[in-house]
Hints:
Residues 87-349 form the Pyruvate carboxyltransferase domain. By secondary structure, the protein is an alpha/beta fold.
Amino acid sequence: xxxxxxxxxxxxxxxxxxxxxxxxxxxxxxxxxxxxxxxxxxxxxxxxxxxxxxxxxxxxxxxxxxxxxxxxxxxxxxxxxxxxxxxxxxxxxxxxxxxxxxxxxxxxxxxxxxxxxxxxxxxxxxxxxxxxxxxxxxxxxxxxxxxxxxxxxxxxxxxxxxxxxxxxxxxxxxxxxxxxxxxxxxxxxxxxxxxxxxxxxxxxxxxxxxxxxxxxxxxxxxxxxxxxxxxxxxxxxxxxxxxxxxxxxxxxxxxxxxxxxxxxxxxxxxxxxxxxxxxxxxxxxxxxxxxxxxxxxxxxxxxxxxxxxxxxxxxxxxxxxxxxxxxxxxxxxxxxxxxxxxxxxxxxxxxxxxxxxxxxxxxxxxxxxxxxxxxxxxxxxxxxxxxxxxxxxxxxxxxxxxxxxxxxxxxxxxxxxxxxxxxxxxxxxxxxxxxxxxxxxxxxxxxxxxxxxxxxxxxxxxxxxxxxxxxxxxxxxxxxxxxxxxxxxxxxxxxxxxxxxxxxxxxxxxxxxxxxxxxxxxxxxxxxxxxxxxxxxxxxxxxxxxxxxxxxxxxxxxxxxxxxxxxxxxxxxxxxxxxxxxxxxxxxxxxxxxxxx
Length: 597
Ligand SMILES: [Zn+2]
């Protein structure tokens, strides 16, 4: 059993307070803040130091019980979820996050994300909205079959068919939840649902009762709770709890609240529901005013013990509350919240990168926790401070959120079995031998160009490979690009559509423009390019470039991805991948109109 150094240090009031106390207690043998900081990064401390802490605690008149600081056994902790000290992390990247334009994911991609979320310790995975389409049902069902530690959840409107579909989809999961919702604001009830308030309550109660036929774990959400009447909310919540709901979610669907108001509203609701002590209260905040995380934390202070959030803050419109920011705020400011989550924070950056690769949504460099600049100290004064005492300017370490976990994965000499094992480790299971062989060939090719292959490289490679496996899709074959100062760039590209080889040539204002024009001259998709971005997968000039292309045609929006050490090849691949999704992919029903929290 390992000691939880963070909590141990917090017991003494934080790093600075501890260093000071040690100095007062025994000036000769005191530990510096830098040393204490190191214990935290390493997750251990030398025995001699531990003895000093024990002596210090005794001198302070509050002897140390080391058992209280042991790292909690994960499985034990999961079952001992108490309302009082534990915040349940409910991830909705694959449901709410997927509603971001063009972020729709295939079943295989969702399975990869689900595996990583489970590894990270997410309590509840909202895998989708089973009744939305046969594809959604299949994805939720596939995830329910493979996830064993986390609870697998499906969203459902408060109508019988939705709830039954959700129930069937999650049925294989050892831990399953149905999340049903209905709008409760006057404007939604009158204009969208065209129902009287009592009818809305009846529908909600009926939905919860049907859900109970499938699982004991039933969540109810009041859509547009932020604009709903408080008395009505209390009435409907009391009724659904009576009917068996075990979690009550209060969403800010339109991202309209501010923290002080949200705190007060949530406190009032919890107080006004007589049987409210029987359930876990939850919140789900949108980021339209940039306050999703702040509002979620205010709700936690007001008593909610479940937060619904997404990786990288993905979600409808301006997005949802970001999982990584909430988890790190609860951890770093443990002194304020005094609450735990079950998240292994060292998995945060790998999961964030995976979601970015799969959805084609790059992470802004100044994004908290997972942005490339989040731990970079540019200013000379800061750098000096950080080198002397990391605590000076860093409130958390890069290692604690997984920045250094991109361990060297494989090298040029790694064999097919090692490659397969590593993929399984990363939650990637290729469906056929053919797919595995193709991916392995790509890996060998990449290993020739790039000495070190990291986890991120494998994710990018597999995403790229899976995109081109569909036999009906557009596939990249080869290209020749000529650019010279003073000359117009020209692209000669060979690709295939449904297996038929095509040759295309075009000039453009730059090589990327020439590539897109060449492909379009044959494909004639009629789509407009919305976003084109290039990111380095790992550090160094020999890194793979990961490109993302967003195309729109009518109301369909798709993101295509490509990865290669040659960014122009990656660019052509991304464009072809977007075309494949546009032409052959499943159309997602639009979120609007079907109601959503
Ligand atoms: Zn939402």
